[in-house]
């Protein structure tokens, strides 16, 4: 009986500390997942901005191309051609930037998905372990109670036998 009491006392003293550290760890993981999601959303925003800049630069290059066709002076034509080439170079650079952003976004999204799946699986396992632990604790409590009842029954039985012997022997 004393062994079960010691185990019960130990479990009661250790479980809250483990549960608190587990909750702290869970909060840290949730925070990391949220931060990663924010990074993904930020990169998605940058990709959209880059796409918009590419569209604007294409429009600008088309505009300078039309100016080259319409202009009559040689100086104007060369000036507009330079501006058109500059806009096309910027388009190329923006496309490179967009490609890099998309590649980084894909990697981050994969990491996020993996972390989220692992976290979900881990939480489910922890919850199932907690349920199992509670069941084991209840089983331990039942065993302790059963031991106590058995000892109480044995004590009462010994008392009853002692009373019977006292009734038989009148001194």
- Helical content, roughly? over 70%
* Number of distinct helices: 2
User: Radius of gyration, rounded?
Assistant: 39 Å
Taking the sheet with the most strands, its summary is: none
Shape: rod-shaped
Question: Approximately how much beta-strand content do the residues carry?
Answer: under 5%
- N-end to C-end Cα span: 37 Å
Number of separate domains: 1
N to C succession of SSEs: HH
Instruction: Output the structural class.
Output: mainly alpha
Unreliable segments of 5+ consecutive residues? none
- Counted beta strands: 0
pLDDT averaged over residues = 84
What does this entry look like structurally?
The protein is mainly alpha-helical and 171 residues long. Helix 1 (2-70) packs antiparallel against helix 2. It has helices spanning 2-70, 74-168.
Please outline the helices and strands:
Layout: H1 2-70, H2 74-168
Helix pairs in contact: 1-2
Give a brief outline of the structure:
The protein has about 170 residues and is mainly alpha-helical. It has one domain (about 1-170).
Overview features:
mainly alpha; 171 residues; 0% strand; rod-shaped; coiled coil; Chromosome segregation ATPase
